[in-house]
Structures are given as structure tokens and as C-alpha cells.
């Protein structure tokens, strides 16, 4: 078992001489290597981390430390803190990122390591990246910070999940901007500055939860629509007097440059300011809200889409693409589009899931691709001690396609992830891989 665990270390010994030395010494003494014990002690500390570090208010941790010292063992705090950063990073990289908010409570050093770029580089090298869900909520009462970002994390001392506020400065994402995700970054695009349309693009690094400026758009936009295809961000609409030379532009995230697409004018799609867009089947699909028509960008020209897809998308409240399949939510069902049969098919299994609160009929629902699974978020009102409260529920659904072309949903988990007396509303639900 020791050799198997040791084999999981993908770094070469010369890169981690400290870890190799400790592993060798513990193996010679017939003990387990430190990775398992370090992780268990780290989780122990995380569970105790909500207590004050002062001994008088941290009696449980002090009692454990005293008992281990009496038995001739090093207290967990001392043994873990003596490890070098490279060993701790190697251990932390093997833990689900859902645990990082709790582990950050252990100490300032743990908090620094959990937000370091080195940790995420280590996760990538070890092949331990995972999909992380970010949710943007809108407050109608807090004018200082009307929109806040949250990440789905594990609740301390529990397997349940909860939305945790992102520890960053005021979000630049306002009510007139759009947001998309590329790699580990969330882009907030356009919006209003002093009541004027903006060319601003801000980026949140989901490793460190810090915002930075990206190159500005060439055209100022308010209420634009943005989508991602092959690492490029397509932004359309939201500008004055839209025409074929200004209504759509593309940002290459690799070269960090903008380009205005010179596309032949199609009056049915170009003469509008409000759009919905999505990258699907290798093409950018755009739907005009005003004209109620959908087109796809194919080889530099606009092409009409299938009429059933156009009509079905128009009736959707929320939509997403998972494994190149287009899903929509209506007030009656969750459906997926079959491009070969040119019709919408129901996602089977959801109405029969026992215990899952119904979200059908709810207009405040968001769908998102969360690592190949579907996440459904919806708003729900309740009363606690005669006070009305707003709750947000979340369900994660695994998707299985059968040979008869049907797709079934299997419930993985669900629960209440956010509750507040403030009237928060769902704005964005995006998943990034880090």
C-alpha cells in the first residue's frame, strides 16, 4: 500500500527531496508515509478552525494536543507546521477544492497556500483539476455592491454544500454586463459607467479570486450577449445603431486581442440590440430577442437554423450546452434538442426523482454545465419566524444517453445552498476548471 501511495507522486524525487526523505524514513520504520496522516490532520484542524486560536477558547484542540504530547507524539499543529511548503502543496493539491474554504481557517499560512498559484499548478501537474461552480447573485437593496460572486463549497463538519462569498473586492459585473468563463477565468464584459455604455472587460482569476483589467472592446456595449467557442469570446449587440461593422466582435484569449467581424449584413439578425448566444456544434448561434429569429455563423456567413430549434429556444427560460448537446428549461420541463430528428426531446427521469423539490413553473431557474453534469439552481421563498426569506436550491444531475436516443437524468445530490432575508436573485451560473 505504501508503494501504491508513493507511486501517485508524479513529481520526480529530485523536485521533492524533502518529501522523498520523509517517505523513505517512515517506510524504513514500518510507518505509513506522511501524505495520509498529513491530510487527516489537516482536515482535523479545519474542523476545529472555527474556534479561536487562543487556548482558552480552543480547549478541544488544546486537549488533543496535550493528549498526543503525553503519549510522546508531536501535536498535530506542530507536526504539520514543520513541513515545508512544497510538501503541504503536494498534499493540499490532492484534496477536493470544496474543502479549501474550510482549510483556509486553519492558519494564515494555510490560507496563503490555498490561494496560491503554485497550488493550482501542482493540481494541474498531478491531474487533480476539477470543475468549480461560480454563481453571481443580485441584491436589490445593497447599492454599494449589488452583485456578488459565490462559489459552491462544502460546509464545515458536513457533506452538504453551500454558496460561499468570493473573497474579492467589489464585483465589476453590473446589471448591464454579461459574463462568460474561459479556462480558470471569468470575464465580465461591457455594462454601464456613469450611465454610458462601456468598453470595459474585467477578468476574475478563479485561482486567487482577484480582478484585473483585460484589453477593452473596440465598441462600447450595454446589455451585450457573449458566448465562447474554441477559446474565443464572441460579443454581440448592446451598441448604438448596430450594423455589420460594429455589432459583433471577437476576443482571442490566447493573443489577448479584439477583432471586429466583417460579416455580410442580415437585417433579420443584425438590426437589434438584445441577443442570446451560445457556442454549439462548432458554430456560434445567435437569437434576436426583438426579431425572434435565430441564425448561426457558418464559414463567415449567417445561416438559418432549423425551425424547431428556433421556436424551442425562443420558449426557453434558461439553457446550456453539455457534451455538445443543447439543453433548455421551460416552465414545464427540461428538454434537449435532437439535431438529427430536428425536434426537442424531454430529459427523462427528473419528475420521478423522489425527494427533489419541484422547480417546474419557476421562472427563476439557471442551468449550467458542471464538469459534464447538469446543475440546476432555482429560487424559493419561505418564512422563518414570520420573516420572509429567499433561498436558493441546487441539484446536480448526471446525464446518461441510452441507445434508443433518449437521455436520462440521475440525481447526484440536491439541497438548499443559500438563504438570506435580502431579496437576492440569480444572475449567472458558470463552471470553471481549476
From TrEMBL:
Residues 77-123 form the F-box domain. It comes from the Eukaryota. Pfam families: F-box, Kelch_FKB95. SMART domains: FBOX (SM00256), Kelch (SM00612). InterPro entries: F-box-like_dom_sf, F-box/kelch-repeat_ARATH, F-box_dom, Kelch-typ_b-propeller, Kelch_1, Kelch_FKB95. SUPFAM superfamilies: F-box domain, Kelch motif. PANTHER family: F-BOX/KELCH-REPEAT PROTEIN SKIP4 (PTHR24414), F-BOX_KELCH-REPEAT PROTEIN SKIP6 (PTHR24414:SF23). This is F-box domain-containing protein. It comes from Microthlaspi erraticum.
Amino acid at each position: 500500500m505504501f508503494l501504491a501511495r508513493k507511486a501517485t507522486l508524479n513529481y520526480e524525487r529530485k523536485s521533492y527531496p524533502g518529501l522523498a526523505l520523509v517517505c523513505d524514513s517512515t517506510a524504513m520504520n514500518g510507518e505509513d508515509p506522511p501524505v495520509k496522516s498529513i491530510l487527516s490532520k489537516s482536515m482535523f484542524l479545519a474542523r476545529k478552525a472555527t474556534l479561536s486560536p487562543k487556548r482558552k477558547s480552543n480547549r478541544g484542540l488544546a486537549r488533543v494536543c496535550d493528549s498526543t504530547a503525553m503519549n510522546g507524539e508531536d501535536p498535530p499543529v506542530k507536526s504539520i507546521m514543520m513541513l515545508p511548503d512544497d510538501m503541504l502543496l503536494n498534499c493540499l493539491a490532492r484534496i477536493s477544492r470544496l474543502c479549501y474554504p474550510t482549510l483556509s481557517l486553519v492558519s494564515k499560512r494555510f490560507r496563503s497556500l490555498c490561494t496560491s498559484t503554485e497550488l493550482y499548478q501542482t493540481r494541474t501537474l498531478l491531474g487533480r483539476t476539477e470543475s468549480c461552480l461560480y454563481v453571481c447573485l443580485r441584491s436589490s437593496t445593497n447599492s454599494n455592491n449589488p452583485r456578488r460572486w459565490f462559489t459552491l463549497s462544502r460546509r464545515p463538519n458536513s457533506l452538504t454544500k453551500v454558496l460561499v462569498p468570493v473573497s474579492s473586492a467589489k464585483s465589476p459585473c453590473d446589471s448591464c454586463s454579461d459574463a462568460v468563463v474561459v479556462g480558470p477565468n471569468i470575464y465580465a464584459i461591457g455594462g454601464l459607467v456613469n450611465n454610458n455604455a462601456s468598453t470595459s472587460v474585467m477578468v476574475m482569476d478563479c485561482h486567487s479570486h482577484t480582478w484585473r483589467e483585460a484589453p477593452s472592446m473596440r465598441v462600447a456595449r450595454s446589455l451585450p450577449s457573449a458566448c465562447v467557442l474554441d477559446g474565443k469570446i464572441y460579443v454581440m449587440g448592446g451598441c448604438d445603431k448596430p450594423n455589420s461593422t460594429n455589432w459583433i466582435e471577437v476576443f482571442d484569449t490566447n493573443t489577448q486581442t479584439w477583432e471586429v467581424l466583417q460579416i455580410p449584413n442580415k437585417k433579420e439578425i443584425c438590426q437589434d440590440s438584445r441577443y442570446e448566444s451560445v457556442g454549439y456544434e462548432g458554430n456560434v448561434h445567435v437569437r434576436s430577442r426583438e426579431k425572434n429569429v435565430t441564425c448561426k455563423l457558418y464559414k463567415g456567413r449567417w445561416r438559418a437554423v432549423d425551425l424547431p430549434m428556433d421556436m424551442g429556444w425562443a420558449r426557453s427560460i434558461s439553457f446550456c450546452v453539455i457534451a455538445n448537446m443543447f439543453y433548455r428549461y421551460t416552465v414545464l420541463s427540461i428538454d434537449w434538442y435532437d439535431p438529427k430528428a430536428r425536434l426537442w426531446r424531454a430529459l427523462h427521469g427528473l419528475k420521478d426523482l423522489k425527494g427533489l423539490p419541484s422547480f417546474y413553473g419557476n421562472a427563476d431557474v439557471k442551468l449550467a454545465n458542471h464538469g459534464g453534469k447538469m446543475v440546476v439552481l432555482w429560487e424559493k421563498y419561505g418564512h422563518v419566524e414570520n420573516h420572509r426569506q429567499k433561498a436558493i436550491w441546487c441539484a446536480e444531475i448526471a446525464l446518461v444517453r441510452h441507445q434508443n436516443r433518449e437521455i436520462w437524468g440521475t440525481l447526484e445530490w440536491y439541497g438548499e445552498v443559500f438563504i438570506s432575508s435580502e431579496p437576492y436573485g440569480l444572475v449567472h451560473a458558470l463552471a470553471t476548471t481549476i
